[in-house]
Each structure stands twice: as structure tokens, then as C-alpha cells.
Design goal:
Blueprint: H1 3-23, H2 30-50, H3 55-82, H4 86-95, H5 99-118, H6 122-126, H7 137-169, H8 186-206, H9 215-226, H10 230-234, H11 243-249
Helix pairs in contact: 1-2, 1-5, 2-3, 2-5, 3-7, 7-8, 8-9
Amino acid sequence: MEPLLWEALAVLMMVMLAWIRTVASGLVTVMDVLWGLGFLVVASARLVAQGGTDAVGWVAYGALLVWALRLATHLHLRTRSRGEDPRYVRMREGWGERWWWGSLVQVFLLQGLILLVVAAPLRPLLDADQRDALPYATVLMAAAGLLVGLGLLLEAVADESLRRFRAREGPGHLLTTGLFAVVRHPNHLGEAMVWWGFGLAALAVAGWSAWPVLAGPVLLTLLLRWVSGVRMSEEDLEARPGFAEWVASTPALFPWPRPKRG
């Protein structure tokens, strides 16, 4: 059976089991926790289908493991203390009595499909028999490793800063200092950096012919900036004091200087 089919079946099983588990309560935030773990499911299914990988593949798998477990742990602890994410509350209110089936399509199956696309850079990294390294692959791999490492650090520091701020200030306040004074969503920026790092590494080991795998980080970046990341997160922040000033002075996802308003 083709490795991609193994991946698809593994992800389908994961999202269906998660959906069945949430049917009784209607609470679907668990899918956020499964986001990072889903990439481990994809990578593990591919390794099983191929019978393993080489040193490059295991290093990539190890980096993915660190990223996924940290993110899943953070989201699990946040969900346990906060409950259902406001984004899903709005979705449930919109679907009404049809939420039972609506969540299957709009949350679980859709996220599973997106996950399979975003995971594209992992495939050439794990496929030991598809190596066609570029002449300067070592330099590119070093740059990719740095990008993944910095992205992971940025995401972790931003999440922890936000957790401590909420614990100290309580709900209804806006964190606009530190990393959040550089970009409004440094945790999302960190996640994008991780996946662009995987994309760059994939090109380094598989050659320019592997460029279609960049569809993964491209899709993730677009979603984080304009769909499920910045836009949906800020719907819950608009009423907080200082929000308009923060938006006017701080980029959403990509850091660049803005002219000061005098």
C-alpha cells in the first residue's frame, strides 16, 4: 500500500475517533490538541509503510516530535483550564442542532485534510530512497535547522508569556509587551517558521524538483494570517482596551517597522 494512503487512513482514523469521543458533549477543542500530534501520526504512518528511514529522516522525525509534543502539552493544559475555545462556541451556535454533523465536516475532516497538505515537507525528508541533494545541501540544512529551532523557541516563549500574563492579570486584558510588541501573534509566526524550516530542508535533500512540497508551509502561513489564526483569534480581542492602538502600531504576523503616529 502506498505510504500516502497509509497516512490518509491513519489521519482519518484519528479524526473519526476524536469526533466520536466528542459527540456526547459537543465540545471539539480536543482537535486543537490533536493538531500537532496529527503530524506525528502522518510521519509514523509513513515510516511504517516504508519500513523506516535514514539518519536525515530520523533527525527530522525527532524535530517534529519535540515540536508536536510541546504544542500538544501546551494546548491540553490551556484547554483543561479554559474549556471550549470561543471559535468553536461561535461555530456551534451557528450550526445549532446540526452541530453533531457540522463539527465532523467543518472541524475534524477539514482539519485532517489540511494536516495532510501541510505535512508535505515531511515526505521527502522521510523518504530515504528519494535523495537528490543540492550541491549546497549542508548550508541549506543548517539554515533549515536554525529556522526550525528559532521557530520552536519563539512559539514556546510566546505561549508561556501569554500563559503567565493571563494567570497574573486574569481575563479581559491584552498582552502588548515583549514579543507581542513586535508582532501581535508571535506564536503563530513561530509555527510558520518551523514549517518553512521543514520545507527548506526538504528542498536541500530532495532537490528543486521537490518544490511542490512548499504548498504545505504556504497553506499554513495563509491560514495563520488570514483564516484560523490571526483573524479568528482577534475576534475575541476586539473589545479589550487598547486593541485598536495595538493593531495600528504592531504587525499581525510578519515583523516590519511601521511609521510612528505623531
